[in-house]
Design a protein that fits this description.
Blueprint (H helix, E strand, L loop, with lengths): L1 H29 L2 H15 L6 H16 L1 H4 L4 H4 L2 H27 L3 H23 L6 H17 L2 H19 L5 H19 L1
Helix pairs in contact: 1-9, 2-3, 2-8, 3-6, 6-7, 7-8, 7-10, 8-9, 8-10
């Protein structure tokens, strides 16, 4: 009986670990910057006050969601990034995201977007640049996940009110747990990434 009980306990522990692994991976996928930017801009489009037209919204989604997501299939066809595995994927994703952010500035100048949307564009641009500098120049891997989460949360609180902070706090906790569980970041790296986008946004929005 003791032996059977021990086997059942080990199986239960393995099932829980597997569930935790799957949950952490799902959280990491759903809280990537492109996915969160899609959620942010979609919510702001329907709540009003940021986008002046549907075309502005469509271009924004292409530049901030679809273009960065191309990094994942592209990695398979780029040997320089494919050979570096997860690190290569992370680097390519940051490059594609920053290309999208730079193109958004070109679009902003050509189309003459409003001040609120320009603030969001600049937040992504400066936050992405700060991440690249900190990660590549100083070798400190500030969390891109945290940066991509907390900037949108700050924007939602600013544009729609404090109730958005509740949802943001829940997502923050889940994202932090997922990152720690999968060993992607340490707590200081996660909080550093969080601080970058929040500081940048409120500096621009002030």
């Amino acid at each position: 009986n003791v032996y059977v009980g021990a086997i059942r306990l080990r199986r239960a522990i393995r099932r829980r670990r597997k569930f935790a692994d799957i949950s952490a991976k799902a959280i990491r996928i759903l809280t990537t910057a492109p996915i969160l930017s899609l959620a942010l801009f979609t919510l702001l489009f329907f709540t009003g006050g940021v986008f002046e037209s549907a075309s502005e919204f469509a271009v924004t989604i292409v530049l901030f969601t679809f273009l960065p997501l191309t990094a994942y299939p592209l990695q398979r066809f780029l040997p320089a990034f494919r050979s570096r595995g997860r690190e290569g994927q992370r680097t390519l994703a940051m490059i594609m995201a920053n290309i999208g952010y730079l193109l958004s500035m070109v679009y902003a100048m050509v189309a003459g977007v409003g001040s609120s949307l320009l603030t969001l564009y600049l937040t992504y641009l400066f936050s992405g640049a700060a991440l690249l500098i900190i990660n590549k120049a100083f070798g400190f891997h500030a969390s891109g996940h945290a940066c991509g989460l907390c900037g949108p949360v700050a924007a939602m609180v600013y544009f729609t009110g404090w109730p958005s902070l509740i949802v943001g706090a829940v997502l923050f906790g889940l994202c932090l747990w997922g990152s720690l569980h999968m060993g992607r970041h340490t707590v200081p790296q996660f909080f550093a990434g969080s601080a970058i986008s929040v500081i940048v946004f409120f500096s621009l929005a002030a």
